[in-house]
């Protein structure tokens, strides 16, 4: 069994939206990481993932603070 991650996905979207949200979250003191399965698959030599379908993760301890910031920023 895999260990539980300390990160939780809070948004999935285009690279432009992800970069925008990362900057907003960083300004609020929330660090984030991304996962791009398409890019990872191409780098490994095989296809996989959906284009422009990048996932944004924050630490589980920051989720309650991050979600309202994301919702407000995208409205």
UniProtKB/TrEMBL annotation:
Domain of life: Bacteria
Pfam families in alphabetical order: DUF2007
Domain DUF2007: 10-71
Protein name per its UniProtKB record: Putative signal transducing protein
